[in-house]
Amino acid sequence: MTTNPPPDRLDRLEELLFATAQQQAAISAQQAINTQAITANTEAIAANRQAIAALTERLAIVIERVDTLSDSIGVMVPIIQAMRTDMQVMQSDIRGLQTENRRILERLERGQGDQP
Asked: 116: helix, coil or strand?
């Protein structure tokens, strides 16, 4: 039976130092990745802010146009309603004229039927 000699203090310190160096390298690598991601996110946020500002301007224009259209429609509605009323009156007048024309035609036809 062979027994391994217990690791001496220097070996343990070397192992700890190596493990610490590996952890530090991993942390440094992750920090570099995080820094790149933060930089990319900062740039994306700035671009998004510009896009939002442009969209806000466009939205203000659209709102202004909708308000203008709404005002125009508000002006046009009473005019259209008056025109509709006028058309209904004219339609009624036309029906009356048609009825009168039928009566005249019937009289004329009766009158022609009496003649030899």
From this structure: coil
Indicate the pTM of the whole model.
0.53
- Residue 42: what residue type? T
Q: Quick: pLDDT tens for 54-101.
A: 999 999 999 999 999 999 999 999 999 999 999 999 999 999 999 999
Half-sphere exposure of 33 (CA within 13 A, CB side): 6
**Residue 3 per-residue DSSP state:** -
Rounded to the nearest 5 percent, the helix, strand and coil shares of the chain are 90, 0, 10
Cα-atom radius of gyration of the chain, to the nearest Å?
47
Residue with tokens 């005002």: 71
| CA diameter of the chain | 153
